[in-house]
Amino acid sequence: MSTYVGVFLALLVGTALTTWVAYIDLGAFNTVVALVIAFIKMTLVILFFMHVKYNKGLTRIVIVAAFFWLGIMMTFMLADELSRNWTPTVSTWNTILPFLR
Amino acid sequence: MGDMAAHGAVHDAHPPGFAHQFEDVQQQRDAGRLGMWVFLATEILFFGGMFTSYTIYRQLHLSAFVTGSHLLVVKFGAINTAVLICSSLTMAMAIRSAQTAKSKGTIIFWLILTMALGAAFVGLKLRFEWYRDYLEAIVPGINFVPHAKWGADAGQVQMFMCFYFFMTGLHALHMVVGLGILSVLVWMTAKGRFSPEYNAPLEISGLYWHFVDIVWIFLFPLLYLIGGRYPGS
Amino acid sequence: MSTAISPPHDVPAETRTNYLNASYGIRSWLLTVDHKRIGILYLISITFMFMIGGFAASLMRIHLLEPQGALVQPETYNRLFSIHGIVMVFFFLVPSIPATLGNFLIPIMIGARDVAFPKLNLLSWYIFITGSCFVLFAIVSGGVDTGWTFYAPYSSTFSHTSVVAAALGIFIAGFSSILTGLNFVVTIHKMRAPGMTWFRLPLFIWAMYATSLIFILGTPVIAITLFLLGLERILHVGIFDPAIGGDPLLFQHLFWFYSHPAVYIMILPGMGVVSELIAAFSRKRIFGYAFVAFSSLSIAVISFLVWGHHMFVTGQSVYAGLIFSVLSFLVAIPSAVKVFNWTATLYKGSISYQAPMLYALGFIGLFTMGGLTGLFLAALATDVHLNGTYFIVAHFHYVMVGGAVMAYLGGIHYWWPKITGRMYPDLWARIAATIVFVGFNLTFFPQFVLGYLGMPRRYAVYPAEFQVLNVMSSAGASILAIGYGIPLIYLIWSLKYGAPAGPNPWGAKGLEWTIPSPPPTENFEEMPIVTEQAYNYAGTEEEGHHG
Hints:
The complex is a heterotrimer.
Chain A: H1 2-22, H2 29-49, H3 57-83, H4 92-100
Helix pairs in contact in A: 1-2
Chain B: H1 4-10, H2 25-60, H3 62-69, H4 74-99, H5 104-135, H6 154-190, H7 200-224
Helix pairs in contact in B: 2-3, 2-6, 2-7, 3-6, 4-5, 4-7, 5-6, 6-7
Chain C: H1 26-30, H2 35-63, H3 74-93, H4 96-110, H5 118-140, H6 154-158, H7 163-190, H8 203-235, H9 248-282, H10 289-302, H11 318-346, H12 355-378, H13 380-386, H14 390-420, H15 426-453, H16 467-497
């Protein structure tokens, strides 16, 4: 019971914190801080409200797998979108190969 | 174990709600919990598709997305976040009441409180956010009118607002479904179905409710707070 | 040839209570929660959808007899190939083995009374029917012409066809898949009989488990993709519109993130069936059991890492293309592992050539050809030449039809006596299997040549020099159609006139062959206790190693 109230208060503090930090200029770190706080809040909800701290391994595997797959989707899609405009540079092979022939 | 005659003898020992494809209540509870977590995994991928698209476009069109984000009111997003966190607490209390053999009335009290908070979330969103956006003519597909100062960013600001409405809309839809599930739980509790031995529907509905809360925990900073809200952002 | 439990032989099959005669009437079927009846409901539904998709294909092949088109207008041709793809992929192949054979067999093979969530199972069928109705509505209201791939912005902005109805139908049917996959995962984890450890499971179960992982992790993404597409089409604004900065490739990424693993949804169950058939008709334990089991899981995992190979020529980043190409080569390895292990099983096996075995052997040959041609497409440079041509069409038909459909037919024939309690005439079955094999190759091998020579896919017309190969392909299609029609006739005939089947007509190993044919509603009179390894044809006690 006290765990629940403790987690509840932590979540409210996290919300207040993330809102407060948004009004401070940290440049690119604003996003990082916001996401870190969100991850911590999510972890608290999963471990305590959803009782995963007391569950067996299979539940944890399911959760990890879901996020890992989401990670696959984000990583590969971002990799494409962000590297689309990279121009290939002249590689070392281009200079060496004529000599090898 | 499983022999038909012996099974008949222990039949009366099974609580109401026991499903006979299972061997015992423990197996049923384990299966139900695993089933709900697998379903939540599908929901993570479902929302994840939109989160991924959002992340990509944010990377590509950051200034337009910051402009769009500033059209939203942080106060209401923060209040709604707090409302949902309270509802997660009340939901956890409802399950705990069933597990510690509190009266039906106690369980129903916590469930109704959770529903009230969930309804408050949807109500606040509709009245103070979406309706306000409608009045400000920034609802894509309905009455979106770009402001002149957005310049060339106008298309991407519209896209941001698309994401805003699609993502919060999908989330709100899940909340409404959750409210439906909660009302069924209230009815089941009133019928006396739950006890410390058998409260699986409460527990797995709780998982769903907490999941919807987690989605909002991410939506709030990603939609309302990106790029910061400090002067000059 | 021994069975652990056999029913009393003096009780005639017709009077023994089984799941078919336990209750009568349409309500007892439409409101059933028995996984076996639900499997049959799906069997009927997907056979119907197969005929719709096949009809579209027949019209296409007739049309392609002439270089300028023999039958329909180009706009209609576009609708035909789109409907053929949508119906065959989403409403036949994806549910085929999982929803019919999977539903029927999984609980029995693991020694359970039913799946974990029988009511969800029934709901899943109703959801499938609802989705099918939307797609059928899309067909009768003029069809769609976007291809089964629904690429934006054509599908979101410019097409004047029933895109929303079709997308909605697929969206809804996706939930059917998700619930089926969820049910299977929970059932296999939580409801195995005592002694049925993971490494004593039939390989069909491993394959279905891997397939269910893909159902769960992939299908939600196509759901959200079609949801966004539908919203964009209805509201005339969205996130795929280039005019406001949207990226058409984003749609393709989201679409293929599911649709590539989807092809493994279509083939993995077939591989599971083939493992069962090869073991039964070689009377030998599958060689390398653990390798085959883990290869199913590897395929499921790696399949999620390769989707960009559908986008090599779309403007995707070259660097991403490199990574996807390497990973696509990697995903071929577990499939090859299976083919090698099946072949090793055949060596020194006691082989018999009944119809299911003919289908299984056909699968191994044709799937290998289809898989190898996939490597041509995984290599960036050759894909540039072959993409968008009939080479691709031939490649995926070899794996999907020469692979998955043949495995499906083999499985239907193998388990038909268990499902119905009747045997079909094996001579006709073998004739049909041969006709299917010949017709299939005649239809699709010329398409490899056509593709290599440059004939584009999804075109209603083609250069005159390609006519001979196209006519060959269409001729093959008519033979293939006959090959598919014959089983429909004798299988239905067998329901009334086929010889009654005993519990184990094939003399095979597996829990499903220890119960009567057709099984009683609760599957097992007594919970089985499993003490031997899978495919225990040699009759050895398990020694604690896993093959």
